[in-house]
Amino acid sequence: CLHAIHMQPVDEDVCRQTVHAAFEAGINLFDTSPYYGITKAETMLGKAIQGLPRSELVIATKVGRYGADEFNFSADRVTASVTESLNRLQTNYIDIIQCHDIEFGDLEVVVNETLPALQKLKAQGLVRHIGITGLPFKVFHYVLDRVSAGTVDVVLSYCHNTLNDSTLLLELPYFESKGVGVINASPLAMGLLTNSGPPDW
Prior knowledge:
Layout: H1 4-7, H2 12-24, E1 29-31, H3 40-48, E2 58-63, E3 65-67, E4 70-71, H4 75-89, E5 94-99, H5 107-123, E6 127-134, H6 137-144, E7 154-158, H7 168-177, E8 181-185
Parallel strand pairs: 1-2, 2-5, 5-6, 6-7, 7-8
Antiparallel strand pairs: 3-4
Helix pairs in contact: 2-3, 3-4, 4-5
């Protein structure tokens, strides 16, 4: 329901019921972004998780992308973004904070500004783990080869471990060598492997 908000309006009560049903079925990782629905997804998730045991949830959100063509990975913006997300999510910490679609930003800024700023927030207890997201594997290599071990805890890779593309499997030894976890996103290839098909873009 969270990424769907990015695509179409979603009823708040339906979102709450979906999140609670998912949790009861054993799903506890909920990934969102200020970009999804232009902050609506975070706001709805914040409402939806009320009544659930926070210590049993893994809440992941993102910084750096705020619109279709709006990217800002500066230290000041991502620091402010985390505060904004905490407020919308109605929580005092974020389990995984991710730099969103880094291939559209300046990777030197990600390495030298974004990640150090997020490390400071991690030291304050506002975020617990730091991640990066993107489509081309080369952006992960660029960042991970330039930061010290432990700077990045996880990467989110999408559309690369599906029926039509399994290239993520070839990258797993590299990520393991860096001590980085992997989130496999969009296993249905952005809707390509569904009856409705992918978005127009």
